[in-house]
Every structure is written in structure tokens, then in C-alpha cells.
Design brief:
Elements lengths: L7 H11 L16 H19 L3 H6 L3 E3 L4 E3 L2 H13 L17 H14 L1 H6 L2 H11 L2 H12 L3 E5 L15 E4 L5 E11 L9 E9 L14 E6 L1 E3 L6 E5 L2 E6 L10 E6 L5 E5 L6 H37 L1 E4 L11 E3 L4 H36 L5 H33 L11 H9 L8 H14 L4 H15 L8 H26 L12 H6 L2 H28 L5 H20 L4 H9 L4 H4 L6
Parallel strand pairs: 3-6, 4-6
Antiparallel strand pairs: 1-2, 4-5, 5-11, 5-12, 6-7, 7-12, 8-9, 10-11, 13-14
Helix pairs in contact: 1-10, 2-5, 5-9, 5-10, 7-8, 9-10, 9-11, 10-11, 10-17, 10-18, 11-12, 11-13, 11-14, 11-17, 13-17, 14-15, 15-17, 15-18, 15-19, 17-18
The structure holds stearoyl-coenzyme A and flavin-adenine dinucleotide.
The site of stearoyl-coenzyme A has 31 residues, from helix 7, helix 9 and helix 13.
Length: about 625
């Protein structure tokens, strides 16, 4: 039986009933991807995801890749390789490729809906399959040579990696020391050790293309300190003919010198890569320009969205597994009959605390799915504008603002709830490997760590996406939220929830205002200022990240509830009746149980002082 429980009904609801994606499907660059085709694609992928892709999820965990230090190679489990071949043969990666690269253009909202299904079924599988998508970065930023390589990567379905982290350069990517030395033939030799590289070695593809940040040496105007001195190099595992793609048979000097043993996503190899130890590690400068960090952020932005989507996909399947279990597990008597020792035993769905837990899981899983798909719909605007030769700067800013929320808030809420609520619903059975929950918890933890930890997402949100943006995207978002607060839709039945949302939005405004005032007081020369006040800001960036996430999810759930209430006024099948009732219930639950807590967050933010910063380390 498949571990993966998808929720295609809710994906359709978001795409078509709430976010109106028929505006883009079948239009402009997506002329060939109309509503019916999109539904067919999602239905087909859901089938594959819940069957052939999901079946090897547990096996990959129990039989992790085996590293051979002699050959510096890795053997993945055969079952997993079969799922990988199925995924690549299905060719769904084409949905993420532009037409110029042989892709089947589809709007980002459809792509992320598809990705949720694949990531929920078998996240590592999906990450290994990202080579063709990586190729688009070469194609977008590259010279003719790089564009040719991009096409080869796709045609031959090569693997690819993003290579930033080093032992002393994790969050602080700019501390990286890997060097790139120019060669007379225009190529570069890389020297250094990178750490934690996902898919850095595997035995499923003919070749692997590493996209590596390194610091050029001896080049005027390039290679300075920090992130701005990093350039992006294309470093293949095997040398190949850049015209035909044929392997030359010669191994490049980049080797996996270790594969980490981990808490979760064990089948996803996490490699130490050593460059240029013994044999030269030859690379080519992407686009022949020294603009590495900006180029790499194109990958990072996509990967942050991917990690957030992975997180919510796992919470959703975690919840649905918990729901199934709760419906059949009989334990104890109804609380209202607890005094009667002969009272019949009931399924645990009868117990108020189990209902509290299930509704909390449902509300967050659905709220986070809406957050992902709403963000993707903003990306649709960016893509539509680009296809028309325009730039939609407002949409770009809004997408930038939402990305740390999708990644940071999405991963924190998902991983915590998977443990405290979804696994908990199973009682002791949740702790056993008989059920997928313990693996979900282990596999979801990584989402708060890679692609920038939650602390980094909070700082990105406040300093870059709010302060540097001068609050434009945040104002745009607040205006959209206010529109729902002020509207009358929902048959007058969501009044209390609207009031709660209004208060929540004000609370976020209060936290932001307090942080900005504090930040100003830390500026050099500020009257009665103190540079150390910036610590008070740093003590609240994660708080703000979570508060904004709560308000955006509440808003999106209430948008969905409005739609559901309208539908509930008409003729419905029993299944639809239950679905829409559930949508209203989860929105109400979220508004009533989550939003009131934000008032306390304001108090905490406003009362922040420097006591914890003044404390000597020894006192911790
Ligand atoms: C990792 C991988 O963890 C985990 C799983 C991988 C799975 C593979 C999945 C496959 C994905 C497929 C991808 C396909 C690609 C498709 C593409 C499609 C088109 N937004 O603030 P400054 C830039 S990997 C955009 O001064 P510091 C910007 O250029 C490891 N750009 O930073 C900026 O210049 P400017 C992940 C941003 O103090 C410049 O950086 N590791 C953004 O020098 C400097 O900015 C991490 O994520 C942004 N939000 O450095 C590291 N931010 O200002 C986390 C910065 O002039 N650490 N730029 O525009 C950080 O993010 C740090 O904050 C730091 C700080 C490194 C940026
Ligand atoms: P550190 O940066 O040392 O952070 C330690 C703690 O300090 C964290 O809690 C962090 O939030 C906090 N912290 C650090 N700096 C600050 C700050 N300035 N302000 C506030 N708090 C701070 N990297 C790649 O390049 N490519 C990959 O494919 C890749 N895949 C990975 C796969 C796995 C399984 C893992 C575990 C990691 C992977 N990484 C990859 C690396 C990953 O991106 C880093 O682990 C992550 O960015 C954090 O860096 P670090 O582990 O060095 O932690």
C-alpha cells in the first residue's frame, strides 16, 4: 500500500476555484496547456506519485546508498533506481522547461502543484531529477557554449548539483575558500573542498554537472572578499565533447570524498566533494561573467520554493495518514459518557483533543498549500509579463517577499506539526517503522536547515524583502489582505474571522513598526541611538517570519472559505458538501485558534531588551 496520501481535490480547489488559474491556462505562452490538459496532467502524475514513485520511499530509507571510498563512488538501491527511471521516462520535467529547450511550457502554479505530488511521494527522487531544470540556468545566463551544454544536459538527462557550502562557509557563503585558477585555454582549475552537496554522487545518470561557486584568483576585478567575489563554474564529473555531448571517457578531478550518514532523506546522497586533489578539476565560467552569487540565487530562489513545497507536501500526507488511522482506532469511551464504565468504546475521532489535533493539522496543511500555490500564482504574473516582453516589478517584489515565508514558515510549521500532531495521533504506533510518520518527521526536519536556515529566512524577509524594498511588497500584500477584511463576501458568515484577521494584520504591522523604529535607532548618528539596538531587531526576525506566515495563511484560508460558502448555497454531491464544509471549518479554526496568539507576539517584540545579549556566555 502506498504511504503517500495526496490531496488533488484541494489542489484543484486552490488552482481553479480560489486562484482562478484558468486566466493563464490556455493563454499566451500556455496556449497548449489549457484547463483540461492541466487536469489530465495532474491526474496522471497523482496516479504515478501514489504508486510507482511512492513504493520505494521506505526502501530508500532502510537501504541507504553505499559509498565505496576506494572508487569514490556510490551505489543506490535498485528499487529506488527503478522509481527514478519511471519518473524520468514519464518526462514530467518537461513542464518546467521552456519551449526553446524542448519543454512543454506550463505556468508556475501548475508546476508547483505537480511538484507537490512528486515531493510528497518521494522527495529525494524528485531532487535527483532536477538536472534538466538546472540546465535552464545555463541556458538563461550562458554563452553559446553553455547553452549547448544545457541542451545536452536535458537530452541526456544528466544529474546536476548546486555547490556552495564548505566546512567553514555554511550560512556565510561569502566565507568560501574554493579557488578557481584561470587556464590558457579559457577554462579554469578549481581547488578546494565543498561539503553537504545533495546528489553530488550517484549511479543513475551518465554524467553530473556541478554548478560551483569559487573565488577566481589573479583576475582583475574579480575574486574579492565575500559573496560578491564568487563566480559560478560549470564542472562536469566526466569530460565530454561540448558539441555532441559524447563522454570522452576521461574523469574530471572532482570526487566525492565522503557521503554523510544522516537523520533523514537517507537515500539522497549528501557529499563532500573535493576539487583538484591529484587531478585537475576543470570548469568553465558560466556566461564568461563574474556574477556568481546573483546567478546562483536564481537556483536558490527556485530551491527555496521547492523546499517549502516539500515541507507542506509531507505535512499534508502526514495529516491524511493520521486521519485514516484515527477513523479506525478504537480507544476509550466518549468523554461525555466517561462516568459510565460500560459505555461503548469509540474511535479516537470522537475525542475532543484528537479533533483539536486533526483540525490543527488540516488547517495548517491546507493553509500552507494555499501559501505555496498563491506564491506560484504570483510567479505566473512574472512569467506572463516576461512572455509579453514586459516586467511585472510588483509581482517580482511580492514573490521575493513570499519566498522566505514559503521556505522558512512552511518548513518550521510542517516539521513541528508532523511530530507534535500527526505522529502523535497514532499514539505509540506512530513511533514504529510500520507507519510512515517516523520517516516523515526525520525527512522533514532538513527543510528548516538547507537552502538557508530559518534564521537566514527571517533576516532575508526583514532586511532585504521589507527594509531594502522600502515596504512596497509588504504594503501590496497588506492591501490585498485588507480587501478581504473589508469585503462582504461569505454570506455574512465570516464576520468574526474577518475581525480576527484585521487584528492579526494590525499585529504584524505593529511588530514591523517596532522593528523598524529599533533599526533606525541603531543607525550611526541616530539621536540617542545605540548600534547594539540592531540586536533587538535580530531577536525578532524569526518571530516576524512566523507572524507574517500565520496572517497570510489565515487570509488565504478565508478566501477559500468564502468560495466554499458560496458553493454550499447550491446543489452539491455528498463528497463536495463535505469538502466545502471542511474548507469553512479549517479557515474558521485557523482564524480562531492561531490569530489571537499574535497579540502576545507584539507584546514580546515590543518588550525586547538587550538582557540576553548582555549575558556572559558562561551564564548560558
Ligand atoms: C542547499 C541545497 O542547501 C539543498 C537541497 C538542494 C536540492 C536540489 C534541488 C534542486 C533545485 C533545482 C533548481 C533548479 C534551478 C532552476 C532555476 C530556474 C530559473 N534573493 O545580502 P547580501 C544575492 S544549497 C536573491 O550582501 P551576504 C544578491 O545577488 C546551499 N538574491 O549577502 C546580493 O547582491 P545585491 C544553500 C539574493 O551577506 C548578493 O546575494 N545555502 C538574495 O554577502 C549578496 O547579498 C544558502 O541558502 C535573495 N534573497 O551573504 C545560504 N539574498 O544585494 C544561506 C542575497 O547587490 N545564507 N542575494 O542584490 C544566505 O542566504 C546569506 O544570507 C547570504 C549572505 C549568503 C546571502
Ligand atoms: P551554520 O551556518 O554553521 O549555522 C549554525 C546555526 O547558527 C544555525 O542555527 C543558523 O541558523 C545559525 N546562524 C548562522 N549564522 C547566523 C546568522 N548570521 N544569524 C543568525 N543565525 C545564524 N549546501 C550546498 O551548497 N549544496 C547542497 O546541495 C546542500 N545540500 C544539503 C543537504 C543536507 C542534507 C544538508 C544537511 C545540508 C546541505 N547543504 C547544501 C548545506 C546547507 O545549505 C547548510 O547546512 C545550511 O546553509 C546551514 O549551514 P551550516 O550547516 O554550516 O550551519
Amino acid at each position: 500500500m502506498s504511504h503517500y496520501k495526496s490531496n488533488l481535490r484541494d489542489i484543484f480547489f486552490n488552482l481553479f476555484e480560489v486562484l482562478g488559474r484558468d486566466e493563464v491556462l490556455g493563454h499566451g505562452p500556455y496556449e497548449d496547456m489549457d484547463h483540461d490538459t492541466a487536469v489530465a496532467v495532474l491526474t496522471e502524475i497523482e496516479h504515478l506519485a501514489t504508486t510507482k514513485l511512492a513504493t520505494t520511499y521506505a526502501d530508500g530509507d532502510r537501504h541507504p546508498p553505499v559509498y565505496d571510498p576506494e572508487t569514490k563512488s556510490v551505489a543506490l538501491p535498485e528499487s529506488f533506481k527503478r522509481s527514478y527511471a519511471t519518473m524520468m521516462d514519464a518526462g514530467f520535467y518537461n513542464l518546467e522547461l521552456p519551449a526553446e529547450l524542448g519543454g512543454q511550457p506550463s505556468p508556475p502554479s501548475l508546476q508547483w502543484a505537480v511538484n507537490e505530488l512528486n515531493l510528497g511521494a518521494n522527495p529525494a527522487l524528485f531532487m535527483y531529477s532536477a538536472g534538466p531544470k538546472f540546465a535552464t540556468v545555463l541556458w538563461q545566463n550562458g554563452t553559446e557554449r553553455d547553452r549547448r551544454i544545457a541542451q545536452i544536459m536535458i537530452d541526456r538527462q544528466w544529474g546536476a548539483t548546486m555547490v556552495l557550502t564548505e566546512p567553514d562557509a555554511g550560512s556565510d557563503v561569502g566565507a568560501g575558500r574554493t579557488r578557481a585558477i584561470p587556464q590558457p585555454d579559457g577554462s579554469w582549475h578549481l581547488e578546494g573542498v565543498k561539503r553537504f552537496i545533495t546528489s553530488g554522487e550517484q549511479d543513475m545518470t551518465e554524467n553530473i554537472v556541478h554548478l560551483v561557486l569559487a573565488r577566481p584568483v589573479g583576475v582583475e576585478g574579480a575574486g574579492g572578499p565575500g559573496t560578491k567575489g564568487l563566480s559560478l563554474f560549470i564542472v562536469p564529473k566526466w569530460h565530454f565533447d561540448h558539441e555532441t555531448g559524447e563522454l570522452t571517457g576521461e574523469r574530471n578531478g572532482v570526487f566525492a570524498t565522503n557521503v554523510e550518514k544522516k537523520m533523514g532523506i537517507k537515500v539522497s546522497t549528501t557529499c563532500e566533494l573535493t576539487f583538484g586533489d591529484g587531478a585537475p578539476a576543470q570548469g568553465w565560467l558560466l556566461g564568461e561573467v563574474h556574477d556568481g552569487i546573483a546567478q546562483m540565487f536564481q537556483v536558490i530562489e527556485h530551491a527555496r520554493m521547492l523546499v517549502g513545497t516539500k515541507a507542506i507536501a509531507m505535512l499534508s500526507t502526514g495529516y491524511l495518514n493520521a486521519l485514516d488511522y484515527a477513523k479506525s482506532r478504537v480507544q476509550g469511551a466518549d468523554l461525555a459518557a466517561a462516568g459510565d464504565r460500560t459505555a461503548p468504546r469509540v474511535t479516537i475521532t470522537h475525542h475532543p483533543d484528537v479533533r483539536r489535533s486533526l483540525m490543527t493539522q488540516k488547517a495548517y496543511a491546507e493553509g500552507l498549500r494555499s501559501l505555496v500555490l498563491y506564491t506560484a500564482s504570483v510567479q505566473d504574473r512574472v512569467a506572463m509579463a516576461a512572455a509579453e516582453g514586459r516586467t511585472d516589478a510588483d509581482a517580482e517584489r511580492l514573490n521575493d517577499l513570499l519566498l522566505p515565508v514559503v521556505k522558512g514558515y512552511g518548513s518550521e510549521r510542517s516539521w513541528v506539526l508532523l511530530g507534535t500532531e500527526s505522529l502523535q495521533t497514532f499514539g505509540g504506533s506512530g513511533f514504529l517503522t510500520d507507519y510512515p510518520l517516523e520517516q516523515y518527521v526525520r525527512d522533514a526536519k532538513i527543510d528548516t536547515l538547507y537552502e538557508g536556515t530559518t534564521a537566514i529566512q527571517g533576516q532575508d524577509l526583514f532586511f532585504r524583502k521589507i527594509v531594502k524594498d522600502q515596504g512596497r511588497a509588504l504594503t501590496d500584500l497588506s492591501t490585498q489582505i485588507s480587501a478581504l477584511i473589508e469585503a462582504e463576501a461569505g454570506n455574512g458568515q465570516l464576520k468574526e474571522e474577518r475581525d480576527l484577521l484585521e487584528r492579526g494584520l494590525e499585529n504584524v504591522g505593529e511588530i514591523v513598526a517596532s522593528m523598524i523604529m529599533t533599526l533606525r535607532s541603531s543607525a550611526p548618528g541616530a539621536p540617542e541611538g545605540d548600534v547594539r539596538n540592531v540586536y533587538k531587531v535580530g531577536l525578532n526576525t524569526t518571530r516576524l517570519l512566523m507572524a507574517i506566515g500565520d496572517v497570510v495563511c489565515a487570509w488565504l484560508l478565508l478566501r477559500g472559505a468564502e468560495v466554499a460558502l458560496t458553493r454550499l448555497g447550491g446543489e452539491l454531491s455528498a463528497a463536495d458538501q463535505a469538502f466545502y464544509e471542511g474548507k469553512v471549518a479549517s479557515a474558521r479554526w485557523f482564524a480562531r485558534t492561531v490569530l489571537p496568539k499574535l497579540a502576545a507576539e507584539v507584546q514580546i517584540a515590543e518588550a525586547t531588551d538587550l538582557a540576553v545579549m548582555d549575558l556572559p556566555e558562561a551564564a548560558f
